[in-house]
């Protein structure tokens, strides 16, 4: 029987997940596996899940589905409950299980660049990725962090995540903030949103920008010019996909290098189409 998996979201055409997962299948020699991208919003999600057959091994979820899927699952990992978001659904024995591999992706991307034990950190943005970033910081040993948002009133969900994680959170706004006194800054802002706050990373030893295209971002360039260790979002994307493949297929030790190369080839292909 053919085994299937897919990434769901809206919009989804930009997703690199098919390139990453297909590269992993090829590296593992899995011939009967198929991975697609499916346009799906919150309204369509329940019906789509209900219509999946026994050939389905799992789903990768992106915006706006990471929180919307929670009530549709049979079980959810403790980490995904704490973070308040599922980016991975695994089908097993007729049940739907929710996981969060974004946290794993952030931790591994930081480790690749030697950032394993920061003594202080600040997170820019207050969405689902910021919640995963706080969980990653906790895994790195931090029990307090700064959260910087545009609107203090919209930080409530992320504050609740921090409370569940046991991370003491200080919330600040971008207005009037000139710099950040932190060893690590994690920007979870969407492309372009951090362009006007590049001054905040002046003097920060390590900066992680979750954006991966276009790269480098103005924030990454400013951090590199100031001598910081700069980590891009592509590493996070690769590592979270590798963990998803392990969960879907049951294979452990999925090789990272061919997955990374598969995504890079797709990025180059898309860049060539725009020139």
At a glance:
With 275 residues, this protein is α/β, with parallel strands linked by helices.
Tell me what you see in this structure.
This protein is an alpha/beta fold. Helices cover 36% and strands 22% of the residues. The protein contains nine helices and twelve strands. The protein starts with a strand and ends with a helix.
Keywords:
275 residues; alpha/beta; six-stranded mixed sheet; six-stranded parallel sheet; 9 helices
Roughly what fraction of the amino acids lie in strands?
Answer: 15-25%
C-alpha termini separation:
41 Å
Structural class by secondary-structure content: alpha/beta
* Average pLDDT over all residues: 96
Biggest sheet, open or closed, and with what strands and sense?
Answer: 6 strands, mixed
Overall geometric form: globular
Strand line-up in the sheet with most strands: 2-1-3-5-6-4
- The helical percent reads 25-40%
Rg, Cα atoms, Å: 18 Å
Number of strands: 12
Q: Could you state the order of secondary-structure elements as H and E? A: EHEHEEHEEHEHEHEEEHEHH
Low-confidence stretches: none
What is the quaternary state of this protein?
A: single chain
**Count of alpha and pi helical runs:** 9
């Amino acid at each position: 029987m053919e085994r299937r998996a897919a990434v769901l979201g809206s919009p989804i055409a930009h997703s690199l997940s098919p390139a990453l997962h297909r590269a992993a299948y090829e590296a593992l020699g899995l011939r009967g596996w198929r991975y697609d991208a499916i346009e799906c919003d919150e309204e369509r999600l329940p019906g789509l899940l209900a219509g999946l057959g026994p050939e389905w091994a799992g789903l990768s979820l992106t915006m706006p589905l990471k929180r919307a899927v929670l009530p549709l699952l049979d079980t959810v990992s403790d980490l995904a409950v704490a973070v308040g978001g599922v980016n991975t659904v695994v089908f097993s024995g007729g049940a739907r299980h929710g996981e969060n591999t974004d946290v794993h992706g952030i931790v591994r991307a930081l480790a690749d660049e030697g950032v394993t034990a920061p003594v202080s950190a600040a997170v820019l943005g207050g969405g689902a990725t910021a919640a995963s970033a706080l969980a990653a910081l906790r895994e790195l040993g931090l029990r307090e962090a700064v959260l910087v948002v545009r609107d203090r009133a919209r930080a409530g969900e992320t504050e609740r995540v921090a409370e569940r994680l046991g991370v003491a959170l200080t919330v600040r706004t971008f207005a009037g903030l000139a710099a950040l006194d932190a060893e690590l800054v994690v920007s979870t802002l969407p492309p372009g949103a951090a362009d006007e706050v590049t001054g905040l990373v002046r003097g920060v030893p390590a900066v992680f920008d979750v954006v991966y295209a276009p790269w480098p971002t103005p924030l990454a360039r400013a951090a590199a010019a100031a001598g910081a260790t700069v980590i891009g979002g592509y590493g996070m994307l690769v590592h979270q996909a590798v963990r998803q493949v392990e969960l879907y297929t049951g294979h452990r030790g999925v090789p990272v290098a061919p997955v990374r190369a598969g995504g890079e080839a797709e990025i180059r292909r898309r860049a060539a189409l725009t020139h």
